[in-house]
Design brief:
mainly beta; Hemopexin; Thrombin, subunit H; six-stranded mixed sheet; repeat; U3 snoRNP protein; WD40/YVTN_repeat-like_dom_sf; WD repeat; PWP2
Length: about 1000
């Protein structure tokens, strides 16, 4: 939480809309329910964030906050063991200057909830039309050039902390490093927004309609993001650490718990202002960090509040109105109690009561409000106090569901509990792991519970009624070492230092199988040509073959003595498996069918870090730290047939897809291209200056002068061999043209300042006598979200001879692979597996620009003879009658042009429509021409997304097969009659 930078991200468009830096650590962040505060909206402002008001009642850091559904009340919890209740009288006049104060806690308050809401207010919220979205599309279609590859998705990155948000009941929004990931729980798909914060995201909040997303990172910088457009609308920086963040239920306000203060910001919405963020009020009643809220369904007023403390106690508070003049006079003459002042006898305490006894306490009320529904009279009293009975455990996460009146609580020992209120009945008490739960959340309906464990990098969505998992995803705990595409480009396998092999579906971003049989780091992966077998090599001395049908290890290859394998290759037939070692400098050759060791190739004098078979013949190329690249004829057993020497250690070697060129990288930052047939050096690329960039915290030289260790450790040819991708110990990926040996493009893989080596210039003000201030662990011991630095410090990084940056991750690329289709590539980096793609499925269609999607618009487009626009509009409306009307309005001559204009995201729906029409429509030739043109134009897309389109394609195939069988029976029984009719027509 050093820089406090905040990014405001548009989730659907995956772009950062705004940025701001807060002055202090942000401990709480929340949109107001009416979306008027915190969220800048779509306004095009010079400075989108406008500070409305600062509340400075807290004496210590704010930890949690929440709004009431009508945005009239705000609850603030703090580390000073107090909870403050603020009343919004009028937005123009600010907030009440006399808030309620709740005392009596023995530990930090981690949750605070109102119970219930007003049904009338909820109805007004639905009628306001806050969910209005623009139909404009601001991006142009991406070309098919390799230079236009853009960020597509992030795989394998673990959940590192921060709160999660469930938008629209089925979309799970979670921070992943300095990015935001959105998971569709129904479709089992996950996407990562292209927007980046300046450091790891600490808090996120979504507007009630899910249109806006607010993110705050460790540097207190806030981004206000338009989710549908995936762009950042506004940015703002808070002055202190944000520990709580929440929209008000109507989306008009945002409450931010920053340090000891609670700031109420007005949500900009769609207004076009110079500074979109307007500070309404600052609450400063807290003495420590805190905040949370909820409402009552049956009444217009708040009549009950639940507070949850970290010491495993939940308190129920009730509000009772007082209409008597005597009580009113007593309240007016009473003075507010000071924090920590003991209560006198006779002021409502019950003598002789136990912990669960009802205790009443007179608390200072807020200022009388003129508006209806405000808590201007009466008093609060504690109804009951219940304990969770978790010995030596603390409450680390909690959430409350208004409709079900349930509370879910996560503890530091990995246990979570689900409780029915107000009777405090335990429905479930289960253990997820032995590590603390860092986030817990209900969905809108209340049937799903979301849990996150930052130390394990795990996210779970659990349906408590059926006791089944909806989602269970876990990234790699340590860095990803290797990756490999399947031959059809639909699967991606990753191996990491956590001894696990994971297989991902590229289109959905989901991991569907994890293999954990290895006992040491996985160093190399290889897919077999049949697409159903995966090979993995590990430092545990084994090479394992995995069956992707049965999800089992069906063969294990080992050496006669213990060896550490760091490279792997297989021939085109899949009969021979080769692996290079780290310690004995040998290459072992096995038979895939029998599992027997066939040969040991010994010629290298250093670790064999590169192995690859020629695509055209049975020649094996190997690279080693002994400064050589050797070619082996494995099948004839003649040993090394050719040796290419270099002046520096060779780090990796790859063949061009046609087998006529060999590329290898050396320790001096050069890429050498060899002709393997003639054995001559064709050309060399000097890439040290291209990959140079990024200064470590411990570097004594600038990034421009420090090129030591800047080299390419991984290479990959494109599908046509025209360009080559290179990555290594740098924040850059370099794309070179092989023929001209020039740099085409350089990708910066991250802008996350939480990683080391991202900045080219360091701030001298952050240098102390003890070293860089960013490397000093000055976090509090009870900070629940700061697990990265503390966890890595416990892994032995502070021992003598260990990493000088004390475990701070260094940005680098360990593996690169280009998909066999050539339309995307994957990079295994410190942050995870980054996917870059030139697919235009995520680009908005220009034909949707400024068009009202209505049936009238479809009819108007048909009248104007704009057939493609009419069909797209009907697909967006998803009305069968309109879609069929537009299909039959297209003439046979116009079918190719209209089919080519259909965006990829509508293919599945269109294929389903044709499957239905073929079963009932008499225009068979017309339908088949449509299907033929769709397959011609969109064949590549259908092939890449065959897993997603498989149900629609099967229904279409079934319909065509049925029509074919009916016609075949009819024609076979009337063959001679048909011949007669054809000959008779010819004679005429």
């Amino acid at each position: 939480m050093a820089n406090r930078h905040c990014q405001f991200i548009n989730v659907p468009r995956r772009v950062v809309l705004h940025r701001i830096t807060f002055k202090d650590t942000v401990n709480a962040l929340q949109f107001s329910p009416d979306r008027e505060y915190i969220a800048p909206g779509f306004r095009k402002d010079v400075f989108a964030f406008e500070l409305v008001r600062t509340l400075a009642d807290c004496e210590d850091m704010v930890t949690t906050l929440d709004w009431s559904l009508d945005s009239k009340y705000l609850l603030v919890g703090s580390k000073d063991l107090t909870v403050w209740f603020f009343c919004v009288e009028k937005l123009k006049d600010g907030f009440s200057n006399k808030p309620h104060l709740y005392l009596g806690y023995r530990d930090s308050v981690v949750g605070f909830f109102f119970v219930g809401y007003d049904k009338k207010t909820n109805k007004m919220l639905r009628e306001k039309g806050i969910c209005t979205r623009g139909n404009g599309r601001g991006k142009e279609k991406m070309g098919l050039s390799n230079l236009l590859r853009k960020f597509h998705n992030l795989l394998g990155a673990p959940y590192r902390g921060g709160n999660v948000v469930i938008a629209q009941n089925t979309q799970l929004i979670s921070p992943v490093g300095n990015r935001v990931s959105i998971t569709d729980l129904l479709k089992s798909q996950t996407i990562t927004l292209p927007t980046q914060s300046s450091s790891n995201i600490r808090r996120i909040a979504a507007s009630p309609d899910g249109t806006f997303l607010l993110t705050v990172d460790e540097n207190r910088r806030c981004q206000f993001i338009n989710v549908p457009r995936r762009v950042v609308l506004h940015r703002i920086t808070f002055k202190d650490t944000v520990n709580a963040l929440q929209f008000s239920p109507d989306g008009e306000y945002i409450a931010v718990g920053t340090g000891k203060l609670v700031q109420i910001w007005r949500s900009p919405g769609f207004r076009k202002e110079v500074f979109a963020f307007e500070l309404v009020r600052t609450l400063a009643d807290c003495e420590d960090t805190d905040i949370e809220i909820v409402y009552d369904k049956k009444t217009k007023k708040v009549d009950k509040v639940y507070t949850i403390a970290r010491d495993c106690f939940i308190l129920s508070w009730g509000y009772t109105g007082s209409d008597s003049e005597t009580d009113r006079n007593d309240m007016e003459t009473s003075s507010p109690p000071s924090p920590g002042t003991p209560e006198r006898e006779g002021e409502g305490n019950v003598d002789g009561g136990n912990e669960n006894s009802v205790k009443k306490r007179k608390v200072f009320d807020g200022k009388d409000a003129e508006g209806e529904g405000f808590l201007h009279k009466g008093k609060w009293e504690r109804l009951r106090k219940d304990g969770f009975k978790q010995s030596s455990a603390k409450v680390t996460a909690c959430d409350y569901h208004r409709g079900l009146d349930m509370v879910v609580v996560g503890f530091s020992n990995g246990v979570f509990g689900l409780y029915q209120m107000p009777d405090f009945i335990c429905l479930h008490l289960l253990s997820i792991s032995r590590e603390k739960i860092t986030t817990a959340r209900f969905n809108e309906v209340g049937n799903w519970l979301t849990f996150g464990c930052a130390k394990l990098g795990q996210l779970l969505v659990w349906e408590w009624r059926s006791e089944s998992y909806v989602l269970k995803q876990q990234g790699h705990y340590f860095d990803v070492n290797c990756l490999c595409y399947s031959p059809d480009s639909q699967l991606l396998a990753t191996g990491a230092d956590d001894n696990k092999v994971k297989v991902w579906t590229v289109s959905s971003g989901f991991c569907f199988v994890t293999f954990s049989e290895h006992t040491n780091a996985v160093t190399a992966l290889h897919f077999m040509a049949n697409n159903h077998c995966l090979l993995s090599a590990s430092l545990d001395g084994t090479v394992r073959a995995w069956d992707l049908f049965r999800y089992r290890n069906f063969r294990t290859f080992t050496a006669p003595s213990s060896r550490q394998f760091v490279s792997l290759a297989a021939d085109q037939s899949g009969e021979v498996i080769c692996a290079g070692t780290l310690d004995s400098f040998e290459i072992f050759v096995w038979s895939m069918k029998t599992g027997r060791l066939l040969d040991q190739l010994s010629a290298h004098e250093g670790p064999v870090h590169g192995l690859t078979f020629s695509p055209t013949n049975a020649v094996l190329a190997s690279s080693s730290w002994d400064k050589t690249v050797r070619l082996w004829n494995v099948f004839e057993g003649k040993g090394a047939t050719e040796t290419f020497t270099h002046t520096h250690d060779v780090l990796t070697v790859v063949y061009r897809p046609d087998g006529k060129q060999l590329a290898c990288s050396t320790l001096d930052g050069q890429i050498h291209f060899w002709d393997p047939i003639d054995g001559v050096l064709v050309c060399t690329i000097e890439g040290r200056r291209d990959i140079a960039g990024g200064r470590l915290m411990t570097d004594r030289r600038s990034a421009a002068n420090s090129t030591a260790g800047k080299c390419f450790t991984t290479l990959c040819y494109s599908a046509d061999g025209s360009y080559i991708l290179a990555g290594g110990n740098s924040k850059y990926l370099c794309m070179y043209d092989v023929a001209d040996q020039v740099l085409l493009r350089r990708f910066q893989i991250t802008h996350n300042l939480s990683l080391d080596g991202v900045l080219d210039f360091l701030n001298s003000k952050r240098m102390t006598d003890a070293g860089p201030i960013d490397l000093i662990d000055d976090d509090d011991s009870d900070i629940e979200d700061g697990v990265d630095r503390q966890t890595r410090a416990k892994l032995g990084y502070e021992l003598p001879g260990s990493m000088p940056n004390r475990g701070r991750p260094i940005i680098r690329t360990k593996s690169l692979r280009i998909a066999p289709t050539g339309r995307s590539f994957a990079a295994a980096t410190t942050e995870g597996v980054l996917l870059y793609s030139i697919d235009d499925s995520f680009i908005f269609d220009p034909s949707d620009l400024d068009i009202d999607v209505t049936p009238e618009a479809v009819d108007e487009a048909l009248k104007e003879d704009q057939l493609n626009r009419a069909l797209i509009l009907s697909l967006r409306l998803n009305e069968d009658s309109l879609i069929k009307k537009c299909i039959f309005s297209v003439g046979p001559v116009d079918i190719p042009a209209v089919a080519a204009s259909i965006p990829h995201r509508y293919l599945q729906r269109l294929i389903e429509v044709f499957g239905d029409l073929l079963e009932s429509c008499p225009h068979l030739e017309f339908m088949l021409r449509w299907c033929q043109e769709l397959c011609k134009v969109h064949g590549n897309t259908i092939h890449q997304n065959s897993r997603n389109l498989l149900p629609a394609l099967k229904s279409l195939q079934k319909a065509i097969t049925r029509v074919h069988e009916d016609l075949a029976d009819t024609c076979s029984s009337n063959e001679y009659m048909l011949r007669y009719l054809c000959s008779a027509s010819a004679n005429k």
